[in-house]
Each structure stands twice: as C-alpha cells, then as structure tokens.
Amino acid sequence: MTTHKTAATEPLDEALAAFIESRLSIQVASSDARGLATLARGYGAQVSPDRCRVRVLLACSQSDALLRDIEASGRIAVLFNEPESHRSVQLKGRDAQVEPATERDRAALPAYVDTLSRRLQHFQVPEAFSRALLSLADDDLVAVSFSPCEAYGQTPGPQAGEPLPAGAART
C-alpha cells in the first residue's frame, strides 16, 4: 500500500482537529533502534491554533521507553479512538519532541478523565475503575508535540488502514 504523506505544514481539517480534541482514548507509539514497538496511554490531546501540530499528554512513570524512543528518532504514531463508535484515526509524525507539561496541560487533565470515564460506561466499565486507570499526579505529566505527516482511518471495517486525503477528516 502507498503511504499518504502530507507536508508537515499542511493543517489538519477542522473536523479532524475537533475529533482529536474530543477527549478520546489515545495510544501513543514509537519504536527503538531495533524496530521494537514501545507504547503508552495518552491523557488528552491538543491541536495548535494553526492545526499543524498535535500535542499529546503522557504519564512519565508509564512512558520511559516510549519517551526515550521518541527523543532518539522523532518518530511517533498516535491512535485516537472514540470508544462508543470505534471511530479511529491514526496520525504519524517524524519530528516529535518531548516537552514539559504546562499549567494548561495540568488544568485539562480532570476534564479528560471525567469525559473518558463517562464514555467507557457505554461498555459497563465501572466509573471507579476508569478513574483509577486514568488517575495520575499532576507532576507525572509530560507532553509530546509533533507535526502530522501521515493520517489513516483506522475505524474497523473495509476502509481500515486507508490513508486519509490530505487534511481531510474522512474515517
């Protein structure tokens, strides 16, 4: 399959940016020098005002290997999944940077936990379990930002894995 590559400066579609920021289940991945995958749960995402960069929050305590791999290669793949519908989008980047969490990041965490806990109740996941799974200390947050250069629809079905058109929000 041909990989869809967008210019790092090409903005994401407004609808896709809104989807990414809608407090979804997030998985962040990279790989080490041998090609072995590293993975961690994301704790929210923000799209820059120009829609050319995405910032994902991670727990430092759960992401040591992933953060090392991102710092070494700049490569990142992030899966954004809406639990209720299974709508999923994957973004990839080659210029990922690890950054300290900001006050804005820390302030966004409670709303992320509230929303995702509520979304997981769709699957009868007890709220107490979701909150325990998603809880972390403010000082455990770290951010990774990147310019998406590839985008794929990953919603289960015949189009899963298909590249998204440049800047589009089709999944």
UniProtKB/TrEMBL annotation:
* Keyword Cell inner membrane attached: no
Q: Which domain of life is it from?
A: Bacteria
Keywords from UniProt, A to Z, are: Oxidoreductase
What GO molecular-function term can you cite, just one?
Answer: pyridoxamine phosphate oxidase activity
Q: Please list where the region (Disordered) is annotated.
A: 152-171
What are the EC numbers? 1.-.-.-, 1.4.3.5
**KW Oxidoreductase (keyword) present:** yes
| Full protein name | Pyridoxamine 5'-phosphate oxidase family protein
State the organism named in the record: Marinobacterium aestuariivivens
